[in-house]
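Sequence in, structure out.
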Amino acid sequence: MYRCLQIAVLFAIAPAIAAAAMTPAQRAAILAPATDFSAAEQWESLPGGSASNRERFGREAFSQPSSNLSFEDRATFFIGNGLFRRTWVIAPSSTQTADGLGPLYNARACQQCHLKDGRGHPPAGPDDSAVSMFLRLSVPPQNKAQEELLASGRVSVIPEPTYGGQLQDLAIPGLTPEGRMVISYEEQPVELAGGEITHLRKPAYGIGDPAYGPLHPGVMLSPRVTPQMLGLGLLEAIDEADILARANPDDADGDGISGRPNRVWSLEQNTVMLGRFGWKAGQPSLMEQSAGAFAGDIGLSSPLSPDPWGDCTEAQSACRSAPHGEGEPDGTEVSAEMMDLVLFYARNLAVPARRAVDTPEVLYGKSLFYGAGCIGCHTPKFATRPDYAVSALSGQLIWPYSDLLLHDMGEELADHRPEGEANGREWRTAPLWGIGQTMAVSGHTYFLHDGRARNLSEAILWHGGEAQAARDMFVAMPKADRDALLAFLNAL
């Protein structure tokens, strides 16, 4: 039944996407942004195509499998979910398939950071856990060899020589955590049209109690909250050519928007590839994103990241010599089979169907969003490849509201930490699908890469650089218009 629906959807709304004889003009017409805002577009209520979650919402909205999976594939999804939720333990353990935690780490399970597959958040206070937020660390190249490594694309950053690429604030017994993230905020008032005053909180970051000596004087810190997990397979299924077609690095059309791709090294393919995942598009595939998270966040080895000590550097000899859990047949802590199951789970976390696509306020808000130029970065629609590895996600018309490209977001959001070809002011456009269900799933409305924005209005007000003009239009709108635009976002 689901496969029949998938075919029906494709031919009802986008016959050119499914038909081999489609012309470029037909395909372009299907994917063109809306110009009529008197009614919702056909099938707009299914942002993930026929894979959209149409059954469970609220707290479970982001944790549902692709609706068009077969019975067997649904079983695979839930096995992967079990591994995603698994709590890892210290080695050696009688539970050899679940040991190897750390020795230095940020969380004991994927689900701890991605609770209910939703967004992370900054600590609410000095006693609150930072488990869903961490600090990336790197330094400028220190010699010609490191300069050549960066230039070749084989590495995206040079890790801090003692503390590695990420600050781990937890450790197994007998070892000391690397330190703790320190955040302070400065309130900044912003006046909106009509006299409304809102306050932004500008964060500053540091590292307290560094346990392994002083950090490099040139260390660069980049705070990151965990992003929502939904729709990742659909993003991976977008043809690279369709993403690159949106790039305009020299702003040839003069609209002030100059998105460009990040190019990063693929361990899977042993070459430089388009980056798609992470806040700066620093990973080319979901498998590599997952392997990096296992290594950096939990301290677990896998076929792509075989070091059993995770992110520990040569300067951290006690960490490297601590017991490790290498009980899998391939000598890793997370076997290739486990990685495939987690990958299938991550690929198939469904985008929830929209439930208010055609109310007058939402439609008016959509017209304002488009009219302000927000879709210059937040591309509404893409079609997924017909040959993608997961057939349930292939040939779908999707609505992620992202171009997956890098954009200069201005000085206020800059972390001044390059990653691959992304400079210190650039960030990948965050997909907006499901954003209105953040409170229901995650219990908060903290947005942007470090959660500084406490609601969607603040998130918009932090936009600068290429988004400055759109941000200023939002500020100048009457309150009723701002409310309508926010209603549209909350309906995604």
